[in-house]
Specification:
Pfam families: GH3, GH3_C, GH3_M
Helix content: 25-40%
Strand content: 15-25%
Number of helices: 17
Distance between the termini: 57 Å
InterPro entries: GH3 (IPR004993), GH3_C (IPR055378), GH3_M (IPR055377)
Mean pLDDT: 86
Low-confidence stretches: 1-8
Radius of gyration: 23 Å
Shape: globular
Number of strands: 19
Protein name: GH3 auxin-responsive promoter
GO molecular function: acid-amino acid ligase activity
GO cellular component, one term: cytoplasm
Number of domains: 2
Length: about 500
């Protein structure tokens, strides 16, 4: 039986048949739905949701009356009350689940509220994405009915505080997954509960011959590690000798391009790559057609979005947003410009800075690409180097040298009375370090005019160290950041940079 043949509940079928209106109308409808549901909460009463609902222009009124938030601010003002078990704070009822999200730059875990309404919206988007496979050409539909190997967090959630559970969103999602998906889900309930990431991988490798996998789902680095372990254990030439029906890789969280070359070395035949944007705060976008320029924003379900131009007017030098930024709605954005994303969701996040930056590549289709993080950019002297620039430069340089660079990170460092960029790249191939440094520098000059200008003035040097992929992974293990949701930060600053330098000093001692 194919997963596309399953009879879905009527409420989901109704949601999937929503008419395709223009994105502006869809988003206003979503906003009104959220406001109506939360108008009797403490947050809704303080910020006069009833008044917003009666307004002729609810989107503008919402922006006028409700302040913007980052995690620290909304936790201090509101969410700490929900963690104490108080109901009806930012969303009706008590919050029973929290997604733990440390991001890639902060040590302390963030507790992101997860509600049944949010999970329901996420499920509808997941089904829509699955149905969008009909838009793809020459794909093996038989593979859709095979196993879905998902490398995510443990479903054995930790009980904390007055009656709530915390864990990775992937673990919460699987724990609350619909019954009809269970036969397809791998690695199964027992292994999914395993909290020790290394043990989980070993158990997956043990079970690999028993499964017929059609989909791989997860962060590229960890999926690649899993495939390498299977190939090594069973002395295979490629992963398709174990799973001949493997046809899809659903990925997200980081750009896939740096991993692609190394990833494809493990395959016996081409597969279809599908990008998603599923954050702890909700399912935001997904690739809905083959060879799309980007991912399509989810505009008609459970998330209202605003877009803050990522520039010096709205953000300071540390990447912190000002108190009253310029915030645009979806019909006001322009293609080719970087925006920081604010979301309001069915879990009580209101005008919340999620921390990602994105760019519209097709406004009519609401297609976006993720360009980085508000905190993960380098602008020591005005070079305004984005993660998108870095990814592209690494991709072009590695293609030109025919090498694989699955991981990298960059730090801005003093250089005499001026400044330098210090790159750290993971590569297990033989590398001409000087040539690679020169190529990355040249590609960045081509990609970024500000960088090219500053390389002639205050940005005096580019340095580069070549490490192994295992060293990058070992650093993540030392920080307790192993598993499906954790990604290596592309830019290192502050405490994380200090820890990285201390780690390397210990690693490189003869």
């Amino acid at each position: 039986m194919s997963i596309l043949d399953i009879k879905l509940p009527n409420r989901i079928l109704k949601a999937l048949r929503l008419p395709q209106n223009n994105p502006r109308r869809q988003q206003i409808r979503v906003l009104k739905k959220l406001l109506r549901k939360a108008r009797f909460t403490a947050f809704g009463q303080q910020y006069r949701f009833d008044e917003i609902l009666l307004s002729k222009h609810p989107g503008k009124k919402f922006q006028e009356l409700v302040p913007t938030y980052n995690y620290n601010k909304i936790h201090k003002d509101w969410w700490h009350k929900t963690l104490e078990g108080i109901p009806d704070i930012c969303w009706p009822g008590k919050i029973r689940y929290y997604a733990l999200s440390s991001g890639t730059s902060e040590a302390a875990s963030k507790y992101i509220p997860v509600t049944n309404d949010l999970l329901s919206g996420n499920k509808i988007v997941m089904i829509k994405q699955l149905l969008s496979l009909r838009n793809y050409e020459n794909i093996p539909y038989s593979s859709i009915g095979k196993g879905w190997l998902t490398l995510g967090g443990s479903t054995d959630l930790q009980k904390e505080g007055p009656g709530y559970y915390a864990g990775d969103l992937s673990g919460i999602t699987q724990k609350k997954a619909p019954f009809w998906f269970q036969p397809f889900y791998k690695p199964g309930k027992k292994i999914a509960k395993q909290k020790d990431w290394n043990k989980k991988l070993e158990e997956i490798v043990d079970k690999a011959p028993e499964w017929d996998i059609g989909f791989l789902v997860g962060v590229p680095a960890w999926i690649q590690m899993c495939m390498e372990m299977v190939i090594e254990r069973y002395k295979l030439n490629n992963i398709h000798e174990m799973w001949p029906n493997l046809a899809f890789f659903v990925h997200g969280g980081v750009s896939f391009e740096p991993y692609k070359k190394g990833f494809e070395r493990l395959l016996g035949k081409p597969i279809t790559y599908i990008e998603t944007y599923l954050a702890s705060e909700g399912f935001i976008a997904y690739q809905d057609r083959q060879f799309a320029k980007g991912m399509r924003l989810v505009t008609s379900e459970h998330i209202f979005m605003e877009f803050v131009p990522f520039d010096d007017k709205n953000f300071d030098a540390n990447g912190d947003m000002i108190d009253n930024p310029e915030a645009l709605m979806i019909h006001e954005v322009e293609e080719g410009k970087d925006y920081a994303l604010l979301i309001s969701t069915s879990a009580g996040t209101w005008r919340y800075l999620i921390g990602d930056t994105l760019r519209f590549v097709d406004k009519e289709r609401c297609e976006i690409v993720i360009t980085g993080r508000t905190k993960h950019f380098l602008s020591l002297v005005g070079e305004h180097l984005s993660v998108d620039n870095m990814n592209k430069a690494i991709q072009l340089a590695s293609e030109q040298m025919n090498i694989c660079i699955p991981e990298f990170t960059v730090a801005g460092v003093p250089y005499g009375s001026f400044f330098a960029h210090h790159w750290f790249v993971a590569c297990n191939d033989q590398v001409d370090k000087q040539r690679l440094t020169r190529l990355i520098d040249e590609k960045l000059k081509e990609l970024n005019d500000d960088y090219a200008v500053e390389r002639k003035s205050a940005l005096k040097e580019v340095m580069l160290d070549v490490l192994t992929e295992e060293q990058f992974m070992e650093f993540m293990r030392s920080k307790g950041k192993v598993g499906g949701q954790h990604k290596f930060p592309r830019v290192l600053k502050g405490k994380m940079l200090e820890d990285w330098q201390a780690f390397l000093k210990k690693e490189l001692v003869p």
